[in-house]
Specification:
about 190 residues; alpha/beta
């Protein structure tokens, strides 16, 4: 990236979007953070999280000239938003999964390539020291030839995000990109 990052756009303001805002604010206290969501933020959120702006329109968000965007809205909306931002040269970190469907993914990759946009997907488990060491051990063949791997994961939705009704969350709604294969795809990634 050849220009300094002054403004970051966070798309979506659910639990993951809020976490991204908190992390960005803690790592970069003076950066401008814009939140794009389907409804206005309340003044407490703006003040408490130190938001620069809260907008409800992608066009308004683009006018504020973010250099980077974190896309953390429902997976069913990722590609639509990402293409608009990539066409404007805005670098992207898209929460996993990149989409709930392969439709439009290749087009997004092509747009990013044409516009020299950095495109990353938020699979953070691949950076865990334990998994990095596990991968190193596999490649070194210290434990022999691997024929299969089994991983088990699960979440009891009512306890996962207790502050909201799980039936209204992305995790429980296929139309928004929810479901075990998409929501728990970290394990497929590693």
């Amino acid at each position: 990236m050849d220009r300094p990052i002054k403004t970051v756009l966070v798309v979506g303001f659910g639990s993951i979007g809020r976490r991204h805002v908190r992390v960005i604010r803690s790592l970069f206290p003076s950066i401008n953070i814009i939140v794009l969501r389907h409804k206005q933020c309340n003044s407490n959120d703006i003040k408490l999280l130190g938001l620069y702006k809260c907008v409800i329109s992608i066009n308004h968000a683009i006018e504020l000239n973010p250099q980077v965007a974190v896309i953390s809205n429902p997976a069913s909306k990722h590609i639509e938003i990402a293409k608009k931002l990539a066409n404007k040269g805005i670098n992207l970190l898209i929460e996993k999964p990149i989409s709930d469907s392969p439709k439009g993914v290749k087009e997004l990759i092509d747009i990013c390539y044409q516009n020299k946009v950095i495109l990353m997907t938020g699979y953070n488990l691949r950076f865990l020291p334990s998994l990095i060491e596990f991968k190193k051990q596999i490649h070194s063949r210290k434990i022999g030839k691997i024929y299969s791997v089994r991983s088990e994961i699960g979440q009891y939705l009512p306890n996962w995000r207790p502050e909201i009704d799980y039936r209204c969350s992305v995790s429980a709604q296929k139309s928004l990109g929810g479901g075990a294969l998409l929501e728990l795809s970290h394990e497929i990634d590693y």
